[in-house]
Amino acid sequence: MDKLKFYFSPKCLLIITGASQGFGKELAKQFVSQYNRQFHEDSVLDNKITVILIARNLNRLLSLSDELNSSNHSRVNNLNSSKFEHSILIHNAGSVGNPSQLCCDVKVSDSIERSRYYRLNLYSIMELTACFLSSKSIENSHKHIINISSLAAMKPFKGLLDYCVGKAAREAYFRHLAEEFQDSKTRILNYAPGPLETEMFRLLQKEAKFIREDFLKMQPLKLEVSVAKLLKILESDQYSNGCHIDYYDV
Questions:
Q1: Containing structural domain, residue 150
Q2: How would residue 53 be classed by pLDDT, with cut points 50, 70 and 90?
């Protein structure tokens, strides 16, 4: 890890959503630690890394979309007085939804709840990304946009209807975004971190009616191991823009 040279400049902006616990918290710790290691020989840094961590208590996670639409958008816009040379946005926030729902279970009466789900897990991601890209403070910087994805974006898991659809839609959005930025300094990656020791994993072990037994047999990965692999992938820069890379692919 010490030999990694991921950051292009000490004038860096790092934004992570869903950073209060689990994988998001580990992302914040390792990305900041890597920055400190990479620039530790600089005795005086006039431009320390600027970190924005967006998070809410898990039982209020659905309200995150409102936060992204207001205060955090303004926080990014308020950075316009700064000029960054490397800007990183990591979309980690999300929710599982109903872990035991089939296609035939979808009802019109559930439309409000479903709209809230996709506002958090899809629409707010699109809106925050657009806000990030339009900020004058990063317009000439190297950019990394990382979507924390899942194998569920690539294959169905019985019962995880909204989760699979949401993850697949997010990846479709980031592939489209990559097409728009294929000749620029903007690098986009969909990273599936593998099964992790998180609250979501424990929820599926308890409440996922159709796949519960599979998750009970599964050996989850350590958070720090998966984040370390993500950093190595980013540093190597040997991936197609907008592609999907699973932890087990490399």
A1: 12-196+223-249
A2: confident
